[in-house]
Design a protein that fits this description.
The protein is built from 12 helices and 8 strands. It has 2 domains: 161 residues, Rossmann fold (3-Layer(aba) Sandwich); 97 residues, Orthogonal Bundle (ProC C-terminal domain-like fold), CATH 1.10.3730.10. It is of the alpha/beta class.
Amino acid sequence: MTEVERRGLVLLGCGKMGSAMLTGWLAGGLPATSVFVLDPHPSDWLHAQGVHLNAGLPDDPAVVLVAVKPQMMGDALPSLQALGNGSTVFVSVAAGITIAGFEGTLGAQTPIVRAMPNTPAAIGRGITAIVGNSYVSPAQLDMADGLLNAVGQVVRLADEGLMDAVTAVSGSGPAYVFHLIETLAAAGVAQGLPADLALALAKATVGGAGQLAEDADENPAQLRINVTSPNGTTQAALAVLMDEETGFPALLKRAVKAAADRSKELANG
């Protein structure tokens, strides 16, 4: 029996991200009876999962996973203060709330792991960056890693200061890709394609290229070279997209910096 099965897991909030994680845990064999969910507006789906729902909590759970929206944290987290400064590790997937912010509510000696997942976690294709404070043991960090693996890949950070950049690249990144799909489809329409066909082509192209980039041994630069014939159509387009002043390099640097700067502002209140 694992530590989570023996001591229990508390899930604070079961919206889209919480539901995705719970689905992954149950599919991976975690008994529903080991999970205690606190959610003020539980869905019919959640009622059907067999977990302990808005009921008594274990005295010393292995982990509390905090999945409420940041603006709801002030109301939800104080109810779990009694579990602070103990052997329960708190894992937060709430954007913009620092480890110090949790320590201020739960106690300075509370084991806390801050995590930044992204929305593809909803289909098990997310990537989550994690970092723990000095009270998180290697075993607890492994436990958090294993739980978050239920919704995709996990990477570990050596420094919480990197979390703003992670947020700007992978946390906000899916929106950049969705906008690329929008604009690629619109450009196809401008060249005479029917709107539904242009969108189908754009979605499949971006999705397929992303999968190829993950699966291939070559790096993305080499994959780009592979599809670019000298003096061909792709080269003509890349001459525009790769322009150092007006193309992707400058545009994405500005966009990611803007997101990282805003992440820092939110974290500082």
